[in-house]
């Protein structure tokens, strides 16, 4: 298609959602190759898209600021309108995203029927909660089901060489070689999506002993104590020491990722890194499963309380937290070794 468009994509969701939107960015540019594409993202996540060859411009949006200031939100929308976008695609659900889409002045505004203020969109698509992978849901904003059949669902992450000098030095310092270390990412924004620290610790120590690979703990600055608890005595704690491009680089070098249902899964999918994921409060049918070729999802079957929410929650509503407390670490270690050995 040679039609030239000035395209706006609004994706101000969590980091994992942004990573899963990268196939959509690629396909938009393939469908409209002569167009300019601008992406609005949540401020603080923009560096994960650095060096992305499909995106022409990234606009970080300070969501805290626009939520607290109607005047600030109005000014932001006015600035977007001046850019004279012709096509807007909004994978985000919030009513503010729909307002931005409408205020952009784009003649075509595509999004989900279930989005807040979706009446401001003029091409509204169905988005089933259960069933399709999230990438398929995102691609449905651009393609029919038939058109999606031969489209790659793998996320794509890139980095600038100068952005990963620090992590390369850190890896050299700790003797971390490509394919010879295992990443443990034990945290999550939502407490009920976190497998208990002692279970991660058991898995990490046993994998260190049985594979001879080094164990690396990763997460944000707030996860430093958790990662220290998990890896004390055997792990290398890099929590809080990696930027988003550095996290991408580190993930691309790992032999295996062990994590919860959280954003590290989607980093791993971008580099086809074998992934073992523990699902507790959430379920694979929500569509956020790993897309690497080698994966294992550990979950407890037969619990009528699962899922207890689309994101999980702060505490187990049933007070027993069986979905994580009953995770079988012996089985997880066996599966992890199988994933590594292929």
From TrEMBL:
A single Gene Ontology CC term: cytosol
Keywords associated with the record: Glycosyltransferase, Transferase
Pfam families in alphabetical order: Glyco_transf_9
UniProt-recorded name of the protein: lipopolysaccharide heptosyltransferase II
Any one GO molecular function term: ADP-heptose-lipopolysaccharide heptosyltransferase activity
Keyword Repeat (UniProt): no
Family: Belongs to the glycosyltransferase 9 family.
Catalysed reactions, semicolon-separated: an L-alpha-D-Hep-(1->5)-[alpha-Kdo-(2->4)]-alpha-Kdo-(2->6)-lipid A + ADP-L-glycero-beta-D-manno-heptose = an L-alpha-D-Hep-(1->3)-L-alpha-D-Hep-(1->5)-[alpha-Kdo-(2->4)]-alpha-Kdo-(2->6)-lipid A + ADP + H(+)
Gene Ontology process terms (BP): lipopolysaccharide core region biosynthetic process
EC number of this enzyme: 2.4.99.24
Any coiled-coil regions, as ranges: none
Record-linked SUPFAM superfamilies: UDP-Glycosyltransferase/glycogen phosphorylase
Alphabetical list of InterPro entries matching this protein: Glyco_trans_9, LPS_LOS_Heptosyltrfase, RfaF
């Amino acid at each position: 298609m040679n039609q030239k468009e000035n395209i706006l994509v609004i994706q101000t969701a969590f980091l994992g959602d942004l990573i899963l939107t990268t196939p959509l960015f690629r396909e938009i540019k393939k469908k409209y190759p002569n167009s300019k594409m601008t992406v609005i993202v949540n401020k603080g996540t923009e560096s994960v898209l650095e060096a992305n060859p499909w995106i022409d411009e990234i606009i970080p949006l300070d969501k805290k600021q626009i939520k607290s200031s109607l005047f600030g939100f109005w000014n932001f929308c006015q600035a977007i309108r001046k850019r004279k976008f012709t096509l807007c695609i909004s994978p985000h659900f919030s009513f503010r995203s729909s307002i931005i889409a409408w205020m952009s002045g784009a003649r075509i505004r595509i999004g989900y029927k279930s989005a807040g203020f979706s009446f401001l969109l003029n091409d509204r698509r169905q988005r089933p909660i259960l069933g399709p992978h999230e990438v398929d849901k995102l691609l449905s904003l651009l393609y029919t089901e038939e058109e999606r059949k031969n489209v790659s669902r793998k996320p794509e992450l890139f980095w600038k060489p100068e952005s990963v000098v620090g992590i390369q030095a850190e890896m050299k310092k700790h003797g971390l070689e490509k394919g010879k270390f295992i990443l443990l990412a034990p945290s999550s924004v939502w407490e009920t999506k976190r497998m208990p620290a002692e279970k991660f610790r058991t898995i990490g120590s046993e994998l260190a002993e049985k594979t001879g690979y080094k164990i690396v703990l990763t997460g944000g600055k707030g996860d430093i104590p958790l990662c220290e608890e998990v890896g004390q005595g055997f792990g290398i704690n890099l929590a809080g020491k990696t930027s988003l491009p550095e996290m991408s680089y580190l993930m691309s070098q790992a032999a295996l990722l062990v994590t919860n249902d959280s954003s590290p899964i989607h980093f791993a999918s971008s580099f086809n890194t074998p992934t073992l994921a523990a699902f507790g409060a959430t379920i694979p049918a929500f569509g956020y499963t790993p897309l690497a070729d080698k994966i294992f999802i550990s979950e407890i079957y037969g619990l009528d309380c699962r899922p207890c929410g689309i994101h999980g929650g702060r505490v187990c509503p049933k007070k027993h937290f069986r979905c994580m407390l009953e995770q079988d670490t012996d089985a997880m270690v066996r599966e992890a070794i199988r994933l590594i050995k292929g």
